[in-house]
Design goal:
With 301 residues, this protein is of the alpha+beta class. It has 7 helices and 17 strands.
Length: 301
């Protein structure tokens, strides 16, 4: 069996040798923070996509939750590169994770040890039907907002909101859910940002829609603007999902995933993947594979 390694609290460890108590605080209460980062195979070797941006967000999440991380941004970036090299993976998914490594019962995190681990695994497509597009429903569950939990933190507990919505979608035969915010405007998918094409413009929910400001979302906006496409960030009404010309999810795991139906209503041209979505998807693939060097987003290992 090929050995797998995890960077943990400053050192590399064999993955199977790391053991944690069931009572670990972040396992009990969802008090961890994390990132999801892709590593892609390029002509020059393994390339990590937007490494600095991801690790900056990791530290922002820690700050929001008053979690003390004992590593600098540069140290964390170096740790990610080290674990990718050690595992000899040139195409996969990287998971940095910060958590309270303490087994005392109780909600208080005062003086609790914070540990940081970084793992990398081989990882293919998140959605299997991306060639034809996926089927979505608008969830009956609403997206969390800043009055409840901070959406701008990529924290473990936040994703219970995502899990329950995604489970509901699959129960009703859909591939994924779309969540609305507390005011009824479109927010995002359980783990993805969402984009609409309407009248040759690219539309996406704005920050006040209670979304996570996704790094892939930012990449799509910059790629589109570079191609002369008009991009508008604004509040999106639910019915605009039904009347859009094209619709797609984006995210580190999902990459660019076309949406063919919402609530069993076909999107655009009978649910077929449209030209804008194809262009964005192809351009995104060129950037992540290192074939397009207009954007300095690849960190070679």
């Amino acid at each position: 069996m090929v050995k797998s390694y995890i960077w943990f609290d400053g050192k590399l460890h064999e993955r199977e040798m790391l053991k944690f108590d069931m009572l670990t605080h972040s396992l009990q209460y969802g008090s961890g923070i994390f990132e999801g980062i892709r590593v892609y195979k390029t002509k020059k070797g393994a390339g990590i996509f937007r490494l600095k941006d991801h690790m900056e967000r990791f530290l922002r999440s820690a700050k929001i939750y008053d979690m003390k991380i004992d590593y600098t941004l540069n140290e964390l970036e170096d740790a990610v590169i080290e674990v990718v090299k050690k595992n000899k993976i040139d195409s996969g998914y990287i998971r940095p994770f910060g958590f309270y490594n303490d087994t005392q019962i109780g909600l208080s995190v005062k003086d609790k040890k914070v540990s940081v681990g970084i793992a990398v695994v081989e990882f293919g497509r998140y959605f299997k039907s991306t060639e034809k597009g996926i089927n979505c429903i608008v969830s009956s569950w609403r997206r969390i907002n800043s009055e409840i939990l901070p959406p701008q933190a990529k924290a473990s507990g936040n994703y219970l909101n995502s899990i329950i919505a995604s489970n509901e979608a699959k129960k009703f035969g859909a591939d994924e859910a779309i969540l609305l915010g507390s005011r009824g405007f479109v927010a995002e998918g359980p783990g993805e940002n969402i984009f609409l094409i309407k009248n040759n413009e690219l539309l996406t929910p704005s920050e006040e829609s209670d979304i996570l400001m996704g790094i892939t979302r930012d990449s799509v906006i910059k790629i589109a603007e570079n191609k002369g496409i008009i991009v508008k960030e604004r509040l999106i009404h639910r019915e605009e999902l039904y009347t859009s010309d094209e619709l797609f999810f984006c995210g580190t795991a999902a990459e660019i995933t076309p949406i063919s139906t919402v609530d069993k209503k076909s999107v655009g041209n009978n649910g077929k993947v449209g030209p804008f979505t194809k262009m964005i998807s192809e351009s995104y693939s060129e950037v992540t594979s290192g074939d397009n060097e207009e954007f300095d987003w690849i960190t070679l290992c």
